[in-house]
User: Which sequence fits this backbone?
């Protein structure tokens, strides 16, 4: 590999998401050689991925090439590579693009969808794990309407127009809301021959409330809002299987649907299971308050992959804000370690959380206050534009949002077949 | 299929491109039931597809859902369907979504890439036949740079940084220019470690000039412009094969390259070869001046698929303007036929042609005058924004162009893996 000889300590960062990127940026100019690895060449702003899945935004608008973010930082190199193993003893990161030795390694590979051992669901449902998954869901949703308008079979049309979202966290709530708006406002203009009273949208949650991480009042508010929009919210419902368009429940009930979207949970990226470490719930890796492995101080783990309990005894939530703050701490601690200074423990500054439900409908907890309705929606808009990387992306997203808001339309409704041909020339 | 009983003459239009769409729109309100079929749910503005392939634009920005174009026209239905056969005797269009009977059928399925019987090229090269092909090319171009920066092997880096465009028509010229600008202006910022003097861009043309359909002076101008930008333009060069990254020429020469882009020609869509008709060069179907089959007056063929000679004895060129004018004539002739009036022959109003090469560099023939340089480039911009369908698309494309122009950057550089999982639920 074309890596210049390391004259300084080599830091390899695995994963260029919210956390890994903060480490890289905050080590700019530090006396270390940084190698940032990611399987993709871009940084995705995942909080807006559900809008790609519902034809509101284009993938490129929520993605920024990682190299663009790192321009002008001389001590960083970036490689697109799939990490296969981390050899803690030899201190080498093994990838499909070769092996990279390290002195310090930062593991921040994020999460994967947790199907909780339901292989039928994993094989047949949609999720929001990455851009191709979101595009596949968008294509599927639109194709359901295309097929529904072309059939005379009532049961078949019912199956095609029944949309089930499993999981009442922010992703499930935002998806159910966005699909409802797509169905109520956009599709009737495209399919005047279709009876939209047949459309069913279900949001299923296994526990007894939506948005478990939010204050109870906001969870109930979200439930009322979704119900008023026409979503059938069902709490205390557990899914057990899905085959041949038949979704089965623990209580023996069944539902015929062509669309199950799995938003019921995440687990640490598969890399976690390949490491010689103990693992907590959801494959998260326990770390010290300084974000190192207890017995390997040169291995740092952060973000969604790390398991660290806060002052309340509960693990820190798997949120972008946690990952970003942990990324900055890892960068600071790496420099303190180099300089022989004592490391600092992680302290989380809780910036709150928010979820949008629809037009002028959102819930938010910010500055320890609860917000809902129009004001929460504006807050949501502002925060997401602020955190979205790249001037061009901000402008394009704002234009798309303004267009959707004013016209009750969604622009990105073209269904592009995905290429099948492998790129044999590389 | 959920098609209301036809009470009027049924017109089935195959293909919703530039031509088919004009037929549909100009039959709005006429006493016919129109069924428009296309394998895609969108209308693509193909003249800008090369910008998708070179990271300048996003696919959705050059695509408009066909249903959006047809909103509010009561006598039109649209179906996403792949046409498999047209049975002239039974008067039925057979598709993967069922059979559709017709009284009049309009065949306007456009073109496919013509590989002139070179299977190696077909298997290994890239082309611009549709959106997935353009996205595959974009991903490939960016991945070539990612791989090149990661290798120490000089020959391998040379192979990865050698880009060959075959075909000196407008598509080849525009692609060669856009790849050159991507390479010269954008990539060096992302890959500071790479020596860009190693990049080679070849434009190969089998005849003795570029832009054969343009006046000779503009072909020479385009050649000088491309050469000044660093493109190696070679005329009179014929490609015979391509395997294991080795491009072979008729004169025995070879070139090691990971990227061959085939822009050497088109032929009528494969549907043409399934019809019981004689075919001209490039599988085009001979039609009467009224755009019917001579022996089947209820079968209309137009656009790139139709073969009709103009007053100069040469077939009309395969251009959007020809297809659109022919589409309008077919609509008019269909109504005249219904009313028992004599049909009108096709007269082409030549609006000219243009090709862009780079920043403030284009060639155009408009109003029988030759234009080049900055003024041609502005004309090109204006015409393409004007013809691009959809207010939202126009705004987004203009913003992307302004961004690229001002920053020398290209926004759409993220490489999204294409989904492999089949949609089993439909």
Assistant:
């Amino acid at each position: 590999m074309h890596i210049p000889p390391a004259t300084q300590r080599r830091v390899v960062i695995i994963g260029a998401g919210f956390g890994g990127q903060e480490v890289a940026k905050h080590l700019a100019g530090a006396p270390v050689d940084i190698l940032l690895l990611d399987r993709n060449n871009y940084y995705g702003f995942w909080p807006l991925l559900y809008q790609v899945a519902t034809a509101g935004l284009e993938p490129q608008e929520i993605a920024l090439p990682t190299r663009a973010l790192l321009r002008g930082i001389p001590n960083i190199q970036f490689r697109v590579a799939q990490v296969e193993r981390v050899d803690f003893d030899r201190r080498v990161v093994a990838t499909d693009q070769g092996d990279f030795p390290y002195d310090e390694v930062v593991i921040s590979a994020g999460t994967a969808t947790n199907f909780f051992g339901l292989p039928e669901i994993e094989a047949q449902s949609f999720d929001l794990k990455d851009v191709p998954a979101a595009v596949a869901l968008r294509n599927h949703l639109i194709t359901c309407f295309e097929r529904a308008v072309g059939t005379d079979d009532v049961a078949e049309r019912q199956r095609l127009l029944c949309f089930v979202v499993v999981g009442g966290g922010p992703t499930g709530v935002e998806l159910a809301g966005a699909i409802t708006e797509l169905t109520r406002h956009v599709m009737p203009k495209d399919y005047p021959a279709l009876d939209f009273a047949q459309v069913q949208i279900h949001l299923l949650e296994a526990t007894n409330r939506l948005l478990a991480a939010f204050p109870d009042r906001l969870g109930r508010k979200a439930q009322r809002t979704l119900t008023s929009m026409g979503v059938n919210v069902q709490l205390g419902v557990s899914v057990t299987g899905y085959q041949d368009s038949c979704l089965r429940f623990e209580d023996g009930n069944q539902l015929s649907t062509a669309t199950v979207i799995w938003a019921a949970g995440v687990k640490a990226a598969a890399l976690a299971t390949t490491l010689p470490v103990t693992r907590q719930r959801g494959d998260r890796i326990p770390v010290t308050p300084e974000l190192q492995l207890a017995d390997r101080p040169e291995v740092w783990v952060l973000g969604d992959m790390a398991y660290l309990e806060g002052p309340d005894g509960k693990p820190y939530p798997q949120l972008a804000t946690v990952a970003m703050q942990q990324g900055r701490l890892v960068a600071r601690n790496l420099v303190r370690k180099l300089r022989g200074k004592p490391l600092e423990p992680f302290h989380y500054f809780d910036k709150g959380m928010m979820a949008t439900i629809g037009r002028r409908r959102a819930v938010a907890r910010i500055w320890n206050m609860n917000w809902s309705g129009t004001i929460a929606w504006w807050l949501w808009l502002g925060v997401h534009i602020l955190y979205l990387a790249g001037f061009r992306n901000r402008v394009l997203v704002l234009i798309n949002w303004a267009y959707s808001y004013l016209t009750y339309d969604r622009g990105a409704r073209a269904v592009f077949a995905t290429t099948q041909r492998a790129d044999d020339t590389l």
Observations:
- Residues 127 and 262 of chain A are 5 Å apart (CA to CA).
- The domain at 9-39+81-113+267-338 of chain A is CATH 3.50.50.60 (FAD/NAD(P)-binding domain).
